[in-house]
Write a structure and sequence with these properties.
mainly alpha; 0% strand
Length: 165
Amino acid sequence: MRRERRLLTLLGFVCLGLVGGALYLQFFHNEDPCPLCIIQRYFFLLVAVFAFLGAGFNNWRVIALLETLVVISAFGGLVTAVRHVWVQSHPVFSCGFDALQPIVDSLPPAQWLPQVFKVAGLCETPYPPILGLSLPQWSLIAFAVIFLLVGLSVRTKRKLRSAVR
């Protein structure tokens, strides 16, 4: 169980690091976040919160529940990242307004920390790639890895628990 808790803690810090990287690009490279970027930030933060909570418990059932919430959050981020990659690979004429912006900007965190959670860009805006991939593509990879690894871990634990009974 100690290994599991360390891995969850590591996952939480990795997700916080990814959000920190996005903030670095926003503030130091002027890469303004679009609505889909902000939604992906929310999902990374949800994964981090559930991972940190899971690392704080000793009860297998609670950890399994929180890992399931990690998987659900990673799936939401995965869907959002797929949509973002698709939008960037199929840019359409934009009039300078994204329909998701009012929804994302009306969420409470956008009021509490507008520098982090307010929309400032458009989803179609291409920024320079990082190691050959766009930021949405990196996000897609990160969410896919989290979804698969934690999902397989939850599934394996369920099989082991049912075999013991």
